[in-house]
Amino acid sequence: MNRPSRSLLVLALVFCSSRITSGQDAQTEDDFFPLSRFEIPKEIVLEAGALEPLPDGSLAVATRRGDIYFVSNAWDDDVSPAKYHLFAQGLHEILGLTWKDGWLYATQRCEVTRLRDTDSDGLADEIETFCDGWSINGDYHEYAFGSPFDGDGNMWVVLCLTGSFGSDCPWRGWAVRVSEDGAMIPTCSGIRSPGGIGFNSVGDVFYTDNQGPWNGTCSLKWLRPGSFQGHPGGNRWFSLTEQGQKAAPTEPRSGSRIVVEADRIPEYEPPAILFPYQKMGQSASGVACDVTDGRFGPFSDQLFVGDVTHSTVMRCSLEMVDGHYQGACFPFRQGIGSGTLALRMTDDGSMFVGGTNRGWGSRGTKPFSLERLRWTGKVPFEIHEMKVQPDGFLLTFTEPVDPETAGKTETWNFESYCYIFQSAYGSPEVDHAKPEVTAAVVAEDGMSVRLTLNQMTRGHIHELHAGDLRSESGRPLLHDAAYYTLHYIPESK
Question: The whole model's pTM is what?
Answer without folding.
Answer: 0.94
